[in-house]
Amino acid sequence: MTTSADAQRSLECVRRFQEGEKAAFDELVRMHQRQAYGFVYSLIGNVEDAADILQEGFLRAYEGLGRFRGESGFKTWFYRILINLTRDMLRRRGRSRKLFSYSLDEEDENGAAKSVPDATWRPDKAAQEHECESVLNGALCELSDRQREAFSLRYFQGLKTEEVAHILGCGVPTAKVHIFRAVRHIGRIMGPYMDGRS
Amino acid sequence: MGMCFFVKRKLLDFAEGDIPECQAVQVRAHLESCPACRGRLAEIRRGLQAAGLHRETQMSEDFWKKFDVELQKKIFERECERFPRTGRRFVWVASVWRPALIALPVLVIMFAVATHLRVFSPAAREEALVRDAAWLMDEASDEQGTLSSDDDITADIEILYLADPSAFRENG
């Protein structure tokens, strides 16, 4: 989640970069790369593609930051770039691609951190969580691109509906409709798993 | 039915607790009498609960190191595309040697002006005339064979001066 302090720090880095301090961009990258990666991954469901999009996004940001006037937050501006790149990639690849196509066993080969089991780790619980996450990813795949973007921005990135609308380039009521439909669809799919948990 | 339409639009805000109390009262009242809206609310609550299950994808430190290196490389390549090799070199030279590059033509111009003034100033021209006159006299004496050394020339000038000092004053 982005606090206003983070947003201020980002804008400060942008200002320093615009004044010619190239190192400020590295700071921006470090501040946003992990969260942005999670966001892109939630949209595209592929480790390599998410990394490629994130790199291209940072390159575009590097080139365009001189023209950034701070009318919105850096994160909003940057996520809009990422959304456009993701849409381009999905369009190029066609609708036949399979989102979230890798299993947790492949994570380590692709560079994802291994989760080290602690003393409270229970295989049955872990398996159940893994299953829930797989079902959630499956439900995300079934959403339309706009609904998935809206849902991810609102609940995974913790943005306000107004910010979601700004990033998606639509009005607040439209963004609300996307979010509502996405939440309802996921609730419908995840129903049996959620009832069991609660 | 009309109330369902109103409540449906408010259900997400209601589930998130982001609704004014006056509207929340209306929604609650409607939910008590409408099983369809209660079903919708249950789905929304499950959806919100499911969103909480999402774990941020954690990548290893090695992945991020590699990512940073790749990014720096790509930024450098883009910079090279924007500023071709010669242009980059010029920019580099200009930034490091800029004072020298500016000073050099100024110094050349100043040297040229100084040389011009030295060669063509009235004093320099007069000095050149005297030098030429002395040389001509020396040549003439050599042709006559009467004078052969500097001492002889000096003695001859002294004699000429004693004979007519005004001629020397007029010629400087």
UniProtKB/TrEMBL annotation, chain A:
<dbReference type="Pfam" id="PF04542">
    <property type="entry name" value="Sigma70_r2"/>
</dbReference>
<dbReference type="InterPro" id="IPR013325">
    <property type="entry name" value="RNA_pol_sigma_r2"/>
</dbReference>
<dbReference type="InterPro" id="IPR039425">
    <property type="entry name" value="RNA_pol_sigma-70-like"/>
</dbReference>
<dbReference type="GO" id="GO:0016987">
    <property type="term" value="F:sigma factor activity"/>
</dbReference>
<keyword id="KW-0805">Transcription regulation</keyword>
<dbReference type="GO" id="GO:0003677">
    <property type="term" value="F:DNA binding"/>
</dbReference>
<feature type="domain" description="RNA polymerase sigma factor 70 region 4 type 2">
    <location>
        <begin position="139"/>
        <end position="186"/>
    </location>
</feature>
<dbReference type="Pfam" id="PF08281">
    <property type="entry name" value="Sigma70_r4_2"/>
</dbReference>
<comment type="similarity">
    <text>Belongs to the sigma-70 factor family. ECF subfamily.</text>
</comment>
<dbReference type="InterPro" id="IPR007627">
    <property type="entry name" value="RNA_pol_sigma70_r2"/>
</dbReference>
<protein>
    <submittedName>
        <fullName>RNA polymerase sigma factor RpoE</fullName>
    </submittedName>
</protein>
<keyword id="KW-0238">DNA-binding</keyword>
<keyword id="KW-0804">Transcription</keyword>
<dbReference type="InterPro" id="IPR013249">
    <property type="entry name" value="RNA_pol_sigma70_r4_t2"/>
</dbReference>
<dbReference type="InterPro" id="IPR013324">
    <property type="entry name" value="RNA_pol_sigma_r3/r4-like"/>
</dbReference>
<dbReference type="InterPro" id="IPR036388">
    <property type="entry name" value="WH-like_DNA-bd_sf"/>
</dbReference>
<dbReference type="GO" id="GO:0006352">
    <property type="term" value="P:DNA-templated transcription initiation"/>
</dbReference>
<feature type="domain" description="RNA polymerase sigma-70 region 2">
    <location>
        <begin position="28"/>
        <end position="95"/>
    </location>
</feature>
<keyword id="KW-0731">Sigma factor</keyword>
<dbReference type="InterPro" id="IPR014284">
    <property type="entry name" value="RNA_pol_sigma-70_dom"/>
</dbReference>
Automatic annotation (TrEMBL), chain B:
<feature type="transmembrane region" description="Helical">
    <location>
        <begin position="90"/>
        <end position="113"/>
    </location>
</feature>
<keyword id="KW-0472">Membrane</keyword>
<dbReference type="Pfam" id="PF13490">
    <property type="entry name" value="zf-HC2"/>
</dbReference>
<keyword id="KW-0812">Transmembrane</keyword>
<protein>
    <submittedName>
        <fullName>Anti-sigma-W factor RsiW</fullName>
    </submittedName>
</protein>
<keyword id="KW-1133">Transmembrane helix</keyword>
<feature type="domain" description="Putative zinc-finger">
    <location>
        <begin position="7"/>
        <end position="38"/>
    </location>
</feature>
<dbReference type="InterPro" id="IPR041916">
    <property type="entry name" value="Anti_sigma_zinc_sf"/>
</dbReference>
<dbReference type="InterPro" id="IPR027383">
    <property type="entry name" value="Znf_put"/>
</dbReference>
